[in-house]
Design a protein that fits this description.
Order of helices and strands: HEHEHEHEHEHEEHEHEHEHEEHEEEEEEH
Keywords: Amino-acid biosynthesis, Decarboxylase, Lyase, Lysine biosynthesis, Pyridoxal phosphate
Number of helices: 12
Distance between the termini: 58 Å
Largest sheet: 9 strands, mixed
CATH architecture of the largest domain: Alpha-Beta Barrel
Structural class: alpha/beta
Enzyme class: lyase
Number of domains: 2
CATH topology of the largest domain: TIM Barrel
GO molecular function: diaminopimelate decarboxylase activity; pyridoxal phosphate binding
CATH class of the largest domain: Alpha Beta
Subunit structure: Homodimer.
CATH superfamily of the largest domain: Alanine racemase
Number of strands: 18
EC number: 4.1.1.20
């Protein structure tokens, strides 16, 4: 997308606004499938927690993607978007047995990540095909909040508990059809990922009726110029060779599954805001915008850096700005960032706004959540409207008159 297209969309739909480039999503999907083209049975399950708009789900469904879901609500959204139940994986954490049973009744693939629920579910439903999530105790991720494979993580069944796991499966006669792992987001070193994969291969040897191995995702995408990213092509070359060799050892052609979220949608997203005020203090120039961490929380939550472009004045002289939001709390998008000169009324574009931006948005300070637009075939399609005051009141119930007297 060009800056002129983004500016036109803010004129058409207002600001703040999220915009997603369909072509970038498609190119990322095709890049991943091409990298693993040497694997006969490859399946991509989009991790929809990154961006769960139904239109995005439909776009990926048309490309052949399945879904990775983490809640019953995500499962329902996937079914609403037209996915067949068998194309949906359900990998919850810390949910009740009742929720898992309810999802199982919908016909989706269940992935269980703790021994207690595994034993209870297996005792009641021994014939249901189940996948098991293993914690390989391999550290990955650019922030502790998104590293989920380390030894202190709440996710997965510890690889050191494998004997206990095998005993539960033998006692319940469960039907284990898959083994899964996920080390965390922002994988920098593919050798670390390959090391974790070997742990998964060793664990898989304990189960004789497997149909697939799910290697999770967490592939890093670039967030700024010359930023490092996961070398998908190199990973595809090395892991494909090792996976194919394991299938021969196992004596059966298995399916290789990935569940990318950020990799598919992050770079496709732009978040557009308008500058409300330029505020000069004794040491800082603030650019205050019509948004806040209620719309893009990642910089405050993870310390994430999103490149900020002044698309109203892209060739202006660069100055240092701290870009801040309108939330009544510390609300900083960037500190002392070099950006082409900003004036009140300019439109700023935050890159990498496709993943974990709208999906983590809130109504903090009773602010409305923005609209979402899909840019496809040279046209902007509104795929979620701006919220209104009526939306804030939805589900709120006033006190009865007699209770206020």
């Amino acid at each position: 997308m060009q800056p002129k297209d983004l500016l036109q969309l803010t004129e058409q739909f207002g600001s703040p606004i999220y915009v997603y480039d369909a072509e970038k999503i498609k190119s990322q999907y095709n890049r991943l499938t091409k990298a693993f083209s040497k694997v006969d049975n490859l399946r991509i399950n989009y991790a929809m927690k990154a961006l769960s708009n139904v239109a995005i789900l439909q776009l990926l469904r048309e490309m052949g993607s399945g879904l990775d879901t983490v809640s019953i609500q995500e499962v329902l959204l996937g079914l609403h978007a037209g996915y067949a139940p068998e194309k949906i994986f359900y990998t919850p954490n810390g949910v009740s047995l009742e929720e898992i049973e309810e999802v199982n009744a919908m016909g989706v693939q269940i992935n269980i990540d703790n021994l207690s629920i595994l034993e209870q579910f297996g005792a009641k439903h021994p014939n249901v095909p189940v996948c098991i999530r293993i914690n390989p105790h391999v550290m990955a991720g650019g922030n502790t909040n998104i590293s989920v494979g380390h030894i202190d993580s709440k996710f997965g069944i510890s690889i050191h508990q494998l004997p206990h796991l095998v005993r539960i499966v033998e006692n319940t006669k469960m039907n284990i059809v898959g083994i899964h792992m996920h080390t965390g987001s922002d994988i920098l070193d593919i050798e670390v990922f390959l090391y974790a994969a070997e742990i998964l291969f060793d664990a898989a040897k304990n189960f004789k009726n497997l149909e697939f191995l799910d290697f999770g995702s967490g592939f890093k995408v670039p967030y700024k110029k010359d930023d490092i990213e996961t070398d998908i092509e190199e990973l595809g070359k090395k892991l494909s060779k090792r996976f194919n060799a394991f299938c021969k050892e196992y004596g059966k052609e298995l399916t290789l599954i990935f569940e990318p979220g950020k990799f598919l949608v992050s770079e496709a997203g732009s978040f557009l805001v308008k500058v409300n005020v330029i505020k000069q203090t004794t040491s800082t120039v603030f650019a205050g915008v019509d948004s806040g961490f209620n719309h893009l929380i990642r910089p405050m939550l993870y310390g994430s850096q999103h490149q900020i472009d002044n698309i109203s004045n892209p060739k202006g002289k660069e100055r240092f700005y701290s870009v801040v939001g309108y939330i009544c709390e510390t609300d900083t998008f960037a500190n002392n960032r070099r950006i082409p000169e900003i004036k009140e009324g300019d439109i700023l574009s935050f890159r990498n706004a496709g993943a974990y931006c709208y999906s983590m948005a809130s109504n903090y300070n009773s602010r409305y959540r923005p609209a979402e637009v899909l840019w496809m075939n040279g046209q902007g399609y509104l795929i979620r409207a701006h919220e209104t005051f009526e939306d804030l009141l939805t589900n709120q119930i006033p006190l009865p008159i007699e209770a206020t007297v």
